[in-house]
Amino acid sequence: MRDAFGTTFDVDGVYLNTPSIGLPPQPVVAAVSDAVVAWGRAETSAPQFDAPVATARGAFAQLVGVPASSVVLGTAVSGLLGLVAASLPPGARVLTADREFTSVTFPFVAAGHEVVELPLDELPERTRAADVVAVSVVASADGAVVDLDALRAEVGPDTLVVLDATQSLGWLPADLSWADVVVAGGYKWLLSPRGAAWMALSDRLAERVAPVQSGWYAGGWDAIYGLPLRLHPDARRFDLSPVWLAQVGAAVALPWLASLDAAAVREHAVGLANRVRTGLDLPPAESAIVSVRHPGAPDRLGRAGVRCAVRGGAARLGFHLHNTEDDADAVVEAVRASSSSG
Q1: Number of C-beta neighbours around residue 6 at 10 A
Q2: Which residues in the chain land under pLDDT 70?
Q3: Fold annotation for 2-26+261-336
Q4: How far apart (Å, rounded) are the C-alpha atoms in residues 81 and 71?
Q5: Gene3D superfamilies attached here (predicted)?
Q6: How many CB atoms lie within 10 A of CB 1?
Q7: CA–CA separation, 332 vs 301, rounded Å?
Q8: In the CATH hierarchy, which fold is given to the domain comprising 45-259?
Q9: Which of 87, 203, 251, 268 has the most crowded Cβ, counting Cβ within 10 A?
Q10: pTM above 0.90, yes or no
Q11: Contact at 8 Å (CB) between 35 and 28?
Q12: What whole-number distance in Å separates Cα of residue 309 and Cα of residue 328?
């Protein structure tokens, strides 16, 4: 067990795979476990899940800096962005970063748009030639952070900005409220069960999006049978029916994350990542994700019991709330160990 930021994590060993699957604190685990037990005892009803859905939606809005009325409920980033892609004129020009996560790019390609990949540092200055800029705030592959200030300064008034905050929301405080789309999956840094995702929509884009995926939940309990079409007047009209157990966990995780000192969370996560970078003679960075390309690093880390992912041949490490200096030092020791000692 580890105590961190006022809660407890049931973890032994060195878990640095948050960019793949976040480690929930015990109150989240308990809430979901209790909901599963109640389900198994036939003690649940559909309306009782409306409260956790609303709580999680409100906390996501707080983390992004938008009103809850602008937040759409979904289950995955790609599905939510599919709505956006379908709303664009045919053949729209979409700029994105090299090696962007495909849940961001595939919906636009599948919708028939022209998607152009650029080096991340060139993206801001090229935005005026695009109808849409779609990019992750923090890159999944290696933790590179987009220059949000430059992007905001350079983007043209008619260019839509789509930000995937899946790898940033929960540790990186940033003003994202100006973007047309801010989307995030909940099961990584937001420490929620898989099956919960949210999307904040600007008013100008919401007017253009057709609610083509909407079912009964987009209209509420008064819209479960029969015509005519009747949907919520705000962003809830785009909602997918929620994954109930995922929302139960999110309703605990997201308000807690939103209550924390965001600067302290960032300092903790980035500080540990930079402790590793210093120990491995890598330049400091402003990301909680570290990409380690030292020869044999993934194998050495695996033998040392460090849980992480491999992306592009490099070990990808993510430092979040439960991690400690001992975790960072274990990485440095494992990677620096000679082959004979491993």
Answers
A1: 10
A2: 338-342
A3: Aspartate Aminotransferase, domain 1 (3.90.1150)
A4: 13
A5: Aspartate Aminotransferase, domain 1, Type I PLP-dependent aspartate aminotransferase-like (Major domain)
A6: 8
A7: 9
A8: Aspartate Aminotransferase; domain 2 (3.40.640)
A9: 251
A10: yes
A11: no
A12: 15
